[in-house]
Design goal:
By secondary structure, this protein is α+β, with helices and mostly antiparallel strands. It folds into three domains: 2-30 and 284-416, no CATH class; 31-160, Sandwich (Immunoglobulin-like), CATH 2.60.40; 162-283, Immunoglobulin-like (Sandwich), CATH 2.60.40.3880. The chain has helices spanning 2-11, 112-115, 180-183, 292-298, 305-308, 316-332, 340-356, 367-375, and strands spanning 41-48, 55-62, 71-73, 76-89, 99-109, 124-130, 133-143, 148-158, 164-166, 170-173, 185-186, 191-193, 198-207, 214-223, 228-237, 242-250, 257-267, 270-281, 380-384, 393-398, 403-410, 413-416. The strands form four sheets. Strands 3, 4, 5, 7, 8, 19, 20, 21 and 22 form a nine-stranded mixed beta sheet that branches. Strands 9, 10, 11, 13 and 16 form a five-stranded antiparallel beta sheet that branches. The relative contact order is 0.14.
Length: 418
């Protein structure tokens, strides 16, 4: 992994970010795995209960094997980590948590290839009771072999006064249509592998009173270009006080990429809107590259335009060959495993598109996307959506580089503070 860091340092004098954070390390594509950080994927969402005013705050997380430090002992490779979650009153992360849980896991594998797997061995599901109000959530993973931590902080707020409440939407996969409730599972970070010809968006509806018996629902799927690729509607009945509802989404004609679900539910003369973003991929992480022209454009953070502009004039087959040779040559020159560098870079691009996209701008083109593509995952994220006397903002901290980036929420997106 140290070789990976060296080659990135060679690559990136090409195009530095025009940022006014501390300049040390500002142009470094610093791979979090190089630093030994146990980077993880996670979901934080609210689900409903059948008791009015009481919710469940769900924190789901998983850490891929290749983000852990394995040590060889005799004929096996061993890793160990501890994951902890804590929930505080809004802004009170220095006080006593309302809830906290911790789990430790030990991994032992004989095949070295499994230590480099992008798939996790375990899934962690933390559930906490919640009521209306604001909460600060701290989620941390410690790699017990390196003693290094990776922590994220998020703030959420629930303020529901209506007799009908719609939960957050999360992406799910299930294996049995006839027994959905016992065979579905949430997809971490809303990343959908094309395991079958469909996926689903799940939410709950809580209602009181007879006027909420019938509802009409419309949902649309919008691609990253802003085009509607799927549009459906149906009428339904609220048979129970708490009802589970899933939107089945056929994937036959969907290309790999990020999509937004826009849902509108009408009942009892009221209208409720919800939306979420999901990313569709095929198989391995390297297939984040689904369109060669788009992938070439996304490489402009690490390759000077003048040096690759001739590639845009090639035909499709020539572009694909050049693209494959570029990354293969780069990786083989440093004795890296095939596609490791490409996978990491386009993982960052895909994550940016999934989480930072705004109307008329893909996530990788935003300030947050630029920083993530070049710097990698921050060591710590501090989010302040309810800051007093100032605009909402978020802070990304990179401890090893002694640098931080502050993003102010302006005009519908987070922009790097000047």
């Amino acid at each position: 992994m140290n070789k990976l860091k060296k080659i990135i340092l060679v690559l990136l004098p090409v195009l530095l970010l025009s940022v006014n954070a501390q300049e040390r390390g500002a142009g470094v594509f610093d791979e979090a795995g190089v630093k030994g950080l146990p980077v993880f994927r996670y979901n934080i969402f609210r689900s409903l209960t059948d008791t009015e005013g009481k919710f469940i705050l769900n924190i789901h997380a998983e850490i891929p094997n290749d983000r852990l430090q394995f040590l060889k002992k005799d004929s096996v490779y061993e890793a160990s980590y501890t994951i902890s979650s804590a929930v505080f009153r809004e802004g009170d992360t220095g006080g006593i948590p309302l809830h906290q849980k911790s789990e430790s896991r030990n991994l032992s594998v004989r095949d070295y290839k499994k230590t480099q797997s992008t798939k996790p061995e375990f899934h962690h599901n933390f559930k906490f009771e919640a009521v209306n109000g604001g909460y600060s959530i701290v989620l941390s993973v410690k790699d017990n072999n390196t003693k290094k931590n990776h922590t994220v902080r998020r703030q959420v707020e629930f303020q529901d006064e209506s007799d009908i409440i719609i939960s957050d939407i999360r992406m799910v996969y299930w294996t049995d249509d006839g027994d959905f409730e016992n065979t579905y599972h949430e997809l971490i970070s809303n990343v959908v592998d094309k395991q079958s010809d469909y996926t689903g968006a799940l939410f709950e509806i809580f209602s009181t009173g007879s006027k909420y018996k019938d509802f009409s629902l419309r949902y649309r799927i919008v691609n990253s270009a802003g085009s509607v690729v799927y549009d459906d509607s149906f009428d339904g009945n609220l048979k129970d006080k708490l009802q589970l509802q899933v939107l089945k989404i056929p994937l036959d004609n969907f290309l790999a990429g990020n999509y937004r679900i826009e849902m509108d539910l009408k009942t009892g003369g009221m209208s409720f809107g919800r939306e979420t973003i999901f990313y569709l991929r095929w198989g391995d992480l390297s297939l984040n590259v689904s369109d060669i022209d788009t992938a070439l454009e996304q490489m402009l953070y690490i390759a000077d335009y003048d040096s690759i502009q001739h590639v845009f004039k090639m035909n499709e087959d020539e572009k694909r060959k050049w693209f494959k040779d570029y990354w293969n040559d780069l990786e083989s020159s440093q004795n890296l495993k095939s596609n490791s560098l490409m996978e990491e870079y386009f993982r960052r691009v895909a994550y940016s598109n999934l989480h930072f996209s705004v109307p008329q701008k893909a996530g990788w083109k935003t300030d947050m996307g630029k920083v993530l593509c070049l710097m990698g995952d921050p060591d710590e994220v501090q989010s302040y959506p309810f800051a007093k006397n100032q605009k909402p903002y978020e802070v990304w901290i990179y401890y090893d580089l002694n640098v931080q980036y502050i993003f102010d929420y302006v005009g519908g997106e987070h922009r790097l503070r000047k």
